[in-house]
Amino acid sequence: MRRVRAARLRWSRWLLLVLVLLCWPQRPARAQPPPPRVLLIDHGSAALARKIRAEGRYAGFDVLDVRALGGSAADAEVLARSGAAAAIEVSADTRVSLRLLSSQPPGSRVFVLESAQQDESFALRVIEQMRARLTDLGGALPDEPAPPAPAVRPAPAAPSSAGDARSDRSASPEALAVDGQKWLWLQAGLAVLSPAGGLGSAPYGALGVQLEGSGGWGLGALAFLPLSSNELHAREGEAEVGVHVLLLRASYSGALGSRWQWGLAAGPGLALLSLAAEARAPWLGTSDRLFCGVGTLELSLARELGGWLRLRSGLLAGLSAPRPVLRFAGHEAAAWGRALGALTLRAEIGLPPTPERTR
Description:
Number of helices: 6
Radius of gyration: 27 Å
Number of domains: 2
Low-confidence stretches: 26-31, 145-180, 355-359
Distance between the termini: 65 Å
Helix content: 10-25%
Strand content: over 45%
Structural class: alpha+beta
Mean pLDDT: 76
């Protein structure tokens, strides 16, 4: 029994070290500002809008389709509420309007860019012009500078309708992550798992992976690894029980304001119970393994700490079937389930898709 406890303690120390290393980027992420946000409005050329989106993301901007906010236009109030510094409106293959948020004087300024003919480099010139104008207005920019762009002529701003403004104010700026693309999230954290049946609660390390697409849907897996074993005592002897749980989950998430997100995940899984027993005479202690199926449902709340880092807490409930039963000398000493619950706290590190270059 002492050898088993020493081995579990060594494994627990290594797992805690891995969790600390995975969660370490949280500190610098809090000090780094998020990338500047730009709204994209397509009224006349889907091809040019795709090129501008790719060029903007490559340059370090957070390009968000205005349809994700539930509207079709962006005035100064919408820009301020969504946290965007600029909006790009594509009206034709050779014509683009830039709307930049300005504090001196308050409001927005509109600039028009035109190309004499369809040009593959037009999207790049639009992003360079936006960077140059934001520099003139003292706006936030990504780290890497871009070369200056040719001058453009200003045009008066077109007022947006009251209906669009009401729609934009009621929508969340985090409704969609990256339009039409998928993010891979690596998860690491801690959990407390408490099953019915008499084994009691125990701390676990939580490791997972989640693939999220547009619209909030995702698929992933989550594993609970024991940091300590459950101890079971009876007159026949004592035993240590370690439980490993692997869950496969489908998930859906939605925005709660600019930085908060709710999530719902459900799916089947598998639990492995490892039993190491020491018996008192005249009984004989043995080691054994038990398997059972698990179905779980988790409700979670996440806080975005940066463009690629989130902190998520969750409340999980589930059922085990068939119900694993631990027996001493033929009688039931404890069980794992059927009902079980868990509290989790996980850091999530996102690996974004590589934007397609259009040059």
